[in-house]
Amino acid sequence: MSATGYSAKEGKKNYLNNGTSIRSWLTTLDHKRIAILYMVGVMVFFAIGALGATMIRLELIRNDGFILEHDTYNRMFSMHGIVMVFFVIIPSIPAILGNFCIPLMIGAKDVAFPRLNLLSWYMYITGGILAAIAIFSGGVDTGWTFYTPYSSQFSNSNVSLALFAAFFAGFSSIFTGLNFIVTIHKMRAPGLTWFRLPLFIWAQYATSIIMVLATPVIAITLMCIVVERTLGLGIFDPTKGGDPVLMQHMFWFYSHPAVYIMIVPSMGVISEVVSCFSRRKIFGYPFIAFSSLAIAVFGFVVWGHHMFLTGQSAYLGYIFSILSFMVAIPSAVKVFNWAATMYKGHIWFTAPMLFALGFIGLFVVGGLTGLFLSSMGTDLHLHDTYFVVAHFHYVMVGGSIMGFLAGIHFWWPKIFGRMYPENWAKTAAILVFLGFNLTFFPQFILGYQGMPRRYHYYSAQYLPLNVLSSAGASVLAVGYIIPLFYLIWSLKYGRRVTSNPWRAVGLEWMTSSPPPTENFDHKPVVTWEAYDYHYSEIDDLPEEPESMMYLPEDEDAHTHDKPEAAVGGEV
Amino acid sequence: MSAEAAVQEHAHGHGHEPDLMHQFDTMEQQNDAYMTGMWTFLVTEIMFFGGLFCAYLVYRYSYPTIFFDAHKHLSIRMGGLNTFILLTSSFSMALAVRAAQLKSRKGQLIWLAVTVLFAFGFLVVKYFEYSAKFEHHLVPGPYFNYEPTTSLVNNPHFNGIVSQIPGAQLQQWAQMFFVLYFCMTGLHGIHVIIGIIVISILWWMVYKGHPATRYFMPIEMTGLYWHFVDIVWIFLYPLFYLIPH
Amino acid sequence: MSEEHGTHATHEHPATSVFTFFKVYIALLLLLLATIWVQYQNFGGLANPIAMAIAVIKMGLVMAIFMGVRFGSKLMKLWAFVGFFFLLILFGTLIDYSSREWMYFHGWSQ
């Protein structure tokens, strides 16, 4: 299994220079190009969501609401939530890295339904445009949860538009999930059995199951709210015999599993990165694989822990509380396995590895504080405070976004054939980790002291910690902006890489970087186990890793313009 | 576009199987992928309807008496007729798929046409049912005005219960029955309309001898969808028209 | 090839005979009559479970014969099952409504 067998063919036709017009991108059926289309979309929405976050943190520097009106503040945090959840985190890893990597990792030419894949991007963009219209023509003030009866009767903002936006984004993720399930089942290369699959694929499979099973429920729930707003059919309206708590049940039946849509793919990325940069076979492969599925299934039976204080039956609350504790088991299994993989490994501190280590640290904090919230007694005190805000940011931002950054750096040379600047990336990884903790750790204390979420007038005793949090947010912002610049810079000026700069195993590293349109020149046949890293290989590693990572400079010179013209046509 | 299209064309024309998409290796793999994909889609459809079924379950549990009374405003005969119509169209759809498997063009044309005709019949019956609701002020909204049936008022079993429910609540709870009725049968009706459109296009393609219809998978998948629509109605009928005492 | 490629039933199964379809169709119509008949009988608390059981049988017939699940791959059968399993989990919402009334804790009455 020589991993560098194709490196001689660098500079040939690849998916980036196969058609450079805008139209060739917008009508493409190539999963790799669709991944890049998603990347552009997600980046735009990340900017919009980050704008909301910036306004929130600026506002909270003082406790007297000195920048925004009450209504505007509500619209800001709603915009931040809706955009970040539905248009950034949920599509980030599955639709970008999953779309790009799954067919490559399983040795397929494409996903099973390329046209459905493109349709899902158009659904996403349609939803995104609706969301943008809703935001910039007055905004939405319900929070991302759209709780009735506020969203259905009292809010005078653009709720219906935002609901349709989330509806379209939901169908986009259903189509993506459907495609992945069929692809993983039916398109694997000969010899690639289930237990030879990379753990990223297992994680994506578990995620796709959640997407396919849970998302339709929120779609119909949101439609019920639209019907209630427009036609006055009060399914959740207490003045018409309805029950708002039912809406919360149906909402969280999706939205709790959705938390696992956000975190499980990230865990898959971490399994890849940790194993590669520790140069060791992953520890406890079947445990990690099945823990992904276990999280997916358990995730469906814990939704009520968001509703301990809504008048839900206390008996059901017990059950939800116990089941919520049980989700900690598969999550912990993963963390222990990553730690065991690194133990006595030959750790190579590249930027992806730093992001992955950051992920593990932040995810552990986020996960453990989740246990506080899933016990009913503690939740009584912490419900709807900044403790909850800090908890889910640790999981979603510290978990998902860190995992996404780890993955995007890990596969960046494969996606564009060029390396990002390593030192800048390491700086960014450290800044993100420090800035993140500085932003959100104070919020745990704030929440514990009783500061409620979604308020911008608050008592002066919370002032110092809020200022600290805002200061941390500015560091975090720098940590996110740096990668944006150097990644775009590297599209043109990054050093051209070999097919396998990390000396990683896995089929995606056995084709050229960037891959050709049909992914592989010859149909791969898999005869080896997953994560076939050998500790003894370390001796084979050249002193200077440069030579295995980069193409020689002269070749760089004469293949210079081709891929870049393609990139220029799209970005 | 052109370069990529050329690559795809090349890949299409490349194999000896004309219907094989470029990303698959064999027809068998492609058929399997389509079937798995369609079933996965049906699972999402189950969950999509599932949200409304869940709401129905909760409200019927909460207001059992009123739901029993309100269901008497629906016609068992009309609903039964519609069930008969949908079962028949499902039967003819199964025969259409069979004809596609046996590559019988005539069979496909006949049975697809029968399916569409019965689907239209379903919508016609639904139209009469809906318009009756408008006449009797049973459409939720400002004009909703529910009158309990005399059998409920006179029934010794329920007599006490109804007198305990204040008038406003009785109106709200009955309205909830009709909200669910319109939402669920409406969503089902939308699925029927989509089915009619898809089957009609398919009929036209078979009639014109479109190359896509050489391949039996499109009609097979449409068939699965149509049977799913039938199954939803199989549950809607007893849940709305046949609420027992 | 991966495992399923080897073990699954191909889709090119022998076409079901018209007579089988017709028998299923007649059975479905009989079940329709049965469910209406049940409505007019006085089964008390059993009436609802019976009506639902009949609906489930009808669904089973449509799925097994009309939709061809009996010839389908294991994966197809699994999916058909998974859909209903998760639907049941969603219906678990009803536990909330049915157990709210049980609640009585000392000290909560005031």
Question: TL;DR?
Answer:
Chain A has 18 helices and no strands.
Keyword list:
A: 571 residues, mainly alpha, globular, C: 110 residues, disordered N terminus
Plain-language structure description:
The complex is a heterotrimer of chains A (571), B (245) and C (110). Helices cover 66% and strands 0% of the residues of chain A. The N terminus and C terminus of chain A are likely disordered. Chain A is mostly helical. With 245 residues, chain B is mainly α. Chain B has nine helices and no strands. In chain B, helix 2 runs antiparallel to helix 8, helix 3 packs across helix 8 and helix 5 packs antiparallel against helix 8. In chain C, helix 2 runs antiparallel to helix 3. Chain C is mainly α and 110 residues long. Chain C has five helices and no strands. At the B-C interface, helix 2, helix 4 and helix 9 of B face helix 2, helix 3, helix 4 and helix 5 of C.
> Which residue ranges of chain A are poorly predicted, with pLDDT under 50 across at least 5 consecutive positions?
1-10, 556-571
What is the H/E order of chain C?
Answer: HHHHH
Number of helices of chain C: 5
**How many runs of DSSP E, i.e. beta strands of chain C?**
0
For the termini of chain A, the CA-CA separation is 36 Å
Largest β-sheet summary of chain C: none
Unreliable runs of chain C = 1-11
Instruction: Please tally the β strands of chain A and state the result.
Output: 0
Radius of gyration of chain C: 21 Å
Give the overall form of chain C: flat
Number of helices of chain A: 18
**SS-based structural class of chain C?**
mainly alpha
**In terms of structural class, how would the helical and strand content of chain A be classed?**
mainly alpha
Q: Kindly state the mean pLDDT of chain A as a whole number?
A: 89
Oligomer: heterotrimer
Helix content of chain C: 55-70%
How do the helices and strands line up, and which of them pair or pack?
The complex is a heterotrimer of chains A (571), B (245) and C (110).
Chain A: H1 22-26, H2 31-59, H3 70-105, H4 114-136, H5 150-154, H6 159-186, H7 199-231, H8 244-278, H9 285-298, H10 314-342, H11 351-374, H12 376-382, H13 386-416, H14 422-449, H15 463-493, H16 546-549, H17 553-558, H18 561-570
Chain B: H1 2-14, H2 27-62, H3 64-71, H4 76-101, H5 105-135, H6 150-154, H7 156-164, H8 167-208, H9 217-241
Chain C: H1 3-7, H2 18-40, H3 47-66, H4 74-91, H5 93-99
Helix pairs in contact in C: 2-3
